[in-house]
Amino acid sequence: MSKHYATIAFTEDVRAIQRDHGSQAFYDRKRIAGKASPGRDPLTATEQDYLAQRDSFYLATISSTGWPYVQFRGGPMGFLRVLDEHTLAWADVRGNLQYISTGNLAAQDRVAIIAVDYVHRRRLKIFGHARVVTAQDDPQLASSLMAPDYEAAVERAVVIDVEASDWNCPQHITPRYSAADLEPALAALRDQLAALQAENASIRSTSGISQ
After folding, report:
1. Which of 50-54, 92-96, 111-115 has the lowest mean pLDDT?
2. 209: which residues sit within 8 A by CB, 6+ positions away?
3. pTM higher than 0.70, yes or no?
4. In angstroms, rounded to a whole number, what is the distance separating the alpha carbons of residues 166 and 78?
5. Which residues contact 112 (CB under 8 A, 6 or more apart)?
């Protein structure tokens, strides 16, 4: 945990609750021992590689009336692009036309992202400032963020200036597997089944056993 992340996350209200539950001293030690960087925390190669393998994340924004809103964002693997060690971006495609997250960003640019790897039970939390760039204002940026062969209408790009990030503990993450995750194991089972069926057919043929 970086010092900058702890400064953002551990407000006085949060530290008061930690004190009440006996965890303040533990997190004070983590904060003191945490890495320090001038200004914003950079995304390391580990974090960049992790984000490049995600096909979804959760985005939290804040409305002009102070209400939080959490949105699931999904796409092809790697649709969340790392532009550099301080910047993330993705192509915002046409959805249900509610524009809640986009509207919230017009009033408040602070966001939080949680990117989860359900297979390996890992999650990365990110604080940042978001800016919206329309496809009309910067068509090159919007098109460069769009995954090849992904059929959707790009309306804008969302660019995140990363402030801080932290790896969260794996407790209570239920493992989930996509069809692509399971395919290698399923392919091996199909090959084994085909071999057994061929062997069974050969034995039946040799023994004169009818099907």
Report:
1. 92-96
2. 203
3. yes
4. 20
5. 59, 60, 125, 126, 127, 128
